[in-house]
Fold this protein.
Amino acid sequence: MSKPGSADAAGGHWIVEVDEERCSLCECCARDCPSGALQSHKDGDRLKLTFQSSQCTACPPEQGCESLCPEQAITRRDAGSAAPEERIELVDGQLIECSYCHATFGTVRKLERVASKRRNQSPIQREYCPLCRRKHLVVKFIDEERKPDGEAVYRSTYEILRQANRLIPGEKPR
């Protein structure tokens, strides 16, 4: 389903519609909106995408919100002469908190969209923010590579791939 918002531009009004099924709340449209008509706001444990028609300058199609949206969830069309002046909410979603540092790092919608594009979705991607995820993976890797006496083993990427028989003979990793 789509939720419309209107925009006043160059004597006309525009309607901005967001397809809630496609929108992952990645915030690309709000982050790159030159006029600030599209904005994202954290409200408690929710992230909301809002639109205010009086701020919209109706960007050229190749530079506007439609072309910025990686999910192709935004459409804009001429609405005639009626446009609400208040900021309206287009989409909202549940924020996710990192299990380790407790920072919010995305929305459920965004992680589900990423998971749908990847074959192997690790539970670590739902639990940890990107920084804590990297820390966790490094610690896990070092723990798995320890010698029996507890000393960590450090090997090059080449050595790891060679040992796992994932190198073509004579090939060097990039």
Summary: The longest strand covers residues 88-97. Residues 129-174 form one domain. The CA atoms of residues 7 and 113 lie 28 Å apart. The radius of gyration is 23 Å.
